[in-house]
Amino acid sequence: MREIREKLSELATVYQEQLSLYRQIQKVGSGEQELIQDGQLDTLLGVLKRKEELLTKAGTYEERVKEVQGQLARHFDLESFSLPKLKEVAPPYYQEELQTLELAITDLLPILETLEEQERRNEDTLNRYLEMVQGPTRKTPQIRLAGRAYGKK
Prior knowledge:
Blueprint: H1 2-29, H2 32-37, H3 41-75, H4 83-89, H5 95-149
Helix pairs in contact: 1-3, 1-5
């Protein structure tokens, strides 16, 4: 019983640590659009490197999450980890730990959705910037052909 309580608490703690990292990632990535729009690509590369470091660290937490989830799923004889299923099969004396775990997940989900949206916006901004920068390069042969068609050299 004590070991399972510790696993549930550990899982909640790992989620909270991930939340902290994801908030840092969000903060680091919040200025990317301005850097792209201003053409500050060297600074942008530094920001992206910092984000990569934080994401790598978050990945190590994810490995621990999967490990503990697997242990809990096996203990409660679940096919795979699922908080709703775990709440159904866990004895009542685990409810406090399960509630803490549920709160950690509830806090984590909105920041993940925000990060996903932020990444989508940043990618769109970068793609528009690249199209703008590369646009004249692509059109130059077309402009020359059009000029020749009208008799210009």
